[in-house]
Amino acid sequence: MSKSADNDRSAELATMQTPPVVSREAWEAARLELLVKEKAHVRARDALAAERRRMPWMEVEKAYVFEGPNGSVSLLDLFEGRRQLIVYRAFFEPGVFGWPDHGCRGCSLGADQVGHLAHLNQRDTTLAYASRAPQADIARLKARMEWEMPWYTITDSFDADFGVAEWHGHNVFIRDGERIFRSYLVNSRGDEAMGTVWSYLDITPLGRQELWEDSPKGYPQGPTYKWWNWHDNYDAEAAPNAKWAAVTDAGEAAFRKIAEQERKAT
Fold first, then answer.
1. Residue 23 domain flag
2. Is 3 domain-assigned?
3. pTM for this structure?
4. What phi and psi values does residue 33 have, to the nearest 5 degrees?
5. Cα separations (Å) of 252 from 44, 220, 226, 229?
6. Cβ atoms 175, 197 nearer than 8 A
7. For the chain, is the Cβ count within 10 Å smaller at the N or the C terminus?
8. Nearest to 88 by CA among 50, 117, 52, 118
9. How far apart are CA 206 and CA 191, in angstroms?
């Protein structure tokens, strides 16, 4: 940073109504006071996800057709054999700002946030992008931007039927054999936080599939943390590693101790 830019920022800081500068003890007290509200926010978020898992389903009866890298595919094909599917409607097509070199800036920022898909896939969930651009243009854009998610071309009324013809959004689906059901839609400001494994799983009907979650009876659930793995190791090590299980057990115990200490401090 240049000296002039540094001086400009110092001048800007001088005009800002910044918080007070306090001692370590006062800072810790302020953090613990705010932590109470943050924990309440986390619990409220978990409760919303639990309610989301109890949303009614809507059966998808129309046979939608997409174009993929290897030709025409159905909505069922987009699942790639997994049980859950999240489809993000990305705006990359003629008439969209940035075309033909780029997709929508907001959609592109969201694509940059997408984490490694192996973790999502391990939870029996597929993420796919869909736009109206031809496959050749999508392949070119993915290569330029180094994106790896599957990305399909919308060829019919899919976007209009699922509320994403004019604006972006994530539609969530679950299947029972060849029957497909729509379970949820997140759009507008809700889309900003999407991209992590957890943000995706929290909008699915099966959730994170961990024992601590409040899920309907019979839903798949397993021990917390135990399924986590390196993204290149899920196929090689299907069962939880005993050493990793011991590490996570110790971590959970430590987290409970910290939480108790923080509870007493407040």
1. no
2. no
3. 0.92
4. -65, -45
5. 21, 21, 11, 17
6. no
7. N
8. 117
9. 19
- C-beta of residue 207 within 8 angstroms of C-beta of residue 213: yes
- Assess if residue 148 is contained within a domain: yes
Question: Which pLDDT tens digit goes with each residue over 53-78?
Answer: 999 999 999 999 999 999 999 999 99
Q: And the tokens for 65?
A: 């057709």
Q: Which helix (H) or strand (E) segment is 140 a member of?
A: helix 135-145
164 is written with which tokens? 């994403």
Pairing of strands 125-131, 151-154: parallel
**What CATH number does the domain containing 114 carry?**
3.40.30.10
Q: Which structural domain range is residue 82 located in?
A: 58-201
> What DSSP string describes 46-106?
HHHHHHHTTPPPEEE-S--EEEETTEEEEHHHHTTT-SEEEEEE---STTSTTTTT---HH
Each residue's pLDDT tens digit, 147-174: 999 999 999 999 999 999 999 999 999 9
Six token digits for residue 235: 């196929």
Identity of the residue numbered 88: Y
Is-contact 66 72, C-beta < 8 A? yes
Residue 266 included in any domain: no
